[in-house]
Amino acid sequence: MKSLFKSKPKTPADLVRQARDLLISVDLGTADGKESKRDEKMMELSKLLRDLKQVLYGNSESEPVTEACAQLTSEFFRENTLRLLIICLPKLNLEARKDATQVVANLQRQQVQSRLIACDYLEKNLDLMDILIKGYDNSDLALHYGAMLRECIRHQSVARYVLESEHMKKFFDYIQLPNFDIASDAAATFKELLTRHKLTVAEFLAKNYDWFFAEYNKKLLESSNYITRRQAIKLLGDILLDRSNSAVMTKYVCSRDNLRILMILLRESSKSIQIEAFHVFKLFVANQNKPPDIVNILVTNRSKLLRLLADFKTEKEDEQFEGDKAQVVKEIAALDPK
Questions:
Q1: Which end of the chain is more exposed for a tag (fewer CB within 10 A), N or C?
Q2: Is the entire prediction scored with pTM above 0.85?
């Protein structure tokens, strides 16, 4: 007889609705009262988040079903489930936080009738990015909110909002936090913001050149932390060598302060920093319209630079590097003071 009364399996939309009801209860504090009742609801919510993750990712026995994923996504963004999940994350246990993070990440890529409806939702709720970014101030939430944030900025309009917000200045401090894992996560988000959406990044850098590179030089390239310097010089090369940023690169290599910093990085004991610094330094030398003060710095330091470059080798044979180095040496040797 028992089998006749088995409850019907929950649809993906049912799972979302039940999770939303529980999140509302958690958010309003109505899950309080008796501790046993509260714990019961939190366990139920944790299970629902696991179930949502399984619909989106599948499991060891089955792949995710497209129709089920579309149903789940539609219901998730029909109301404020994302907002509730983000706001309630501090109240969840660690496993539930991990599941919630994976659910949010996956939903950013789910299409419903060929539309990324997560993007439509986020464009109307951009203040959620403020909450996610401020998560870097909380060591318990930073990695979860950071992972969600990186997935949300896959959408160009969302990335633009973050780039143009006051939060961009905070990343220079987040990257230097004493907690290595959080600092690395912030650096990963910072890199994503500055490399994913080429034209948006080019517009941002052109508009914010002065303060951005002043902060970049002082807080990252001149940081006392080796890892910060190494990541920063690598990212700088990626930014300046990207064709979309040619106007920014031209401006950057006309600055004597920038050249001074690069020449210091060329003398680093770390081979990897030296190599990355060389890739940026060569842009100063290759510039056919060098300002007189750039030429004079290169001429004044010519013998030191040529000695340094003579001993400069990569660990593995690299024809491109050797060719670039030969060209730089030739250009520096041929310079006349202005």
A1: N
A2: yes
